[in-house]
């Protein structure tokens, strides 16, 4: 699997899109930004949270193994999650690049990803040089995260993310703008579980910033403003600049 030059339909620009990792605490806007960036660059969003929730909905063995941990706000085991990502990266839509949303989340997962991308020969461009993942860390204050997560509503049909309290409100309360489905609240978006998720983020995921910073791959973006378009532009520009890493 190698990275190639693709032409963006919106801008007509050609760029090499490789692996993109979106880091950030629960509620930082990883899913919101990944959905927009996916549309722009035409590469898939791989959300480990969404894949796990889909397994739970379908009642698979993997879903049954992960359900209790997710409902308590704990991380699911590295082996389960890495296996899921390995399966997803085999799909042909990942050949030109992909956005990982919510993965890696531990240093072990990051080390696994580095090894796995080398095995897939993902870093080899047509020029024979290595293409490293671009890692974008979205930063948002604790109280803003709490407010965003308690107000989050999601469309069960198309997956679009809304918020009852912020600028991301649907046009009609609790109804998806795209397909008219009734919006739902995620089970892990109650205050007690949110606090546990934020604690686990501090303990297990925040060290990843150091891991990627040492390897000169980390780009920090302030994700706290209410202007979602401005954050999208900053993320998009970081990916385009990262093209020449
Ligand atoms: P996952 O689904 O990945 O959840 P998360 O990381 O906790 O992140 P969230 O989806 O809650 O937040 P987000 O950053 O995507 O924010 P969003 O864009 O929705 O994981 C869930 C669980 O699965 C984990 O707890 C764990 O158990 C398990 N899991 C998943 N991956 C795993 C892994 N790799 N290893 C082990 N376990 C794993 O935005 C939030 C809200 O804010 C929305 O309502 C949105 O509309 C709003 N909003 C976004 N941006 C703005 C803005 N700029 N201004 C105002 N409002 C905004």
Shape: globular
The set of bound ligands, ions and cofactors reads: BIS(adenosine)-5'-pentaphosphate
Distance between the termini: 19 Å
Element order: H for helix, E for strand: EEEHEHHHEHEHEEHHEH
Query: What value does the Rg take, in angstroms?
Result: 17 Å
- As a percent range, the share of helical residues equals 40-55%
- Return the structural class: alpha/beta
Low-confidence parts, pLDDT < 50 over ≥5 residues? none
What does this entry look like structurally?
The structure is a single chain. The chain is globular. 44% of the residues lie in helices and 14% in strands. It is an alpha/beta fold. It has a five-stranded parallel β-sheet, with helices on both faces. Strands 1-2 form a two-stranded antiparallel sheet. It contains nine helices and nine strands. Strand 1 and strand 2 (14-16) form a beta hairpin.
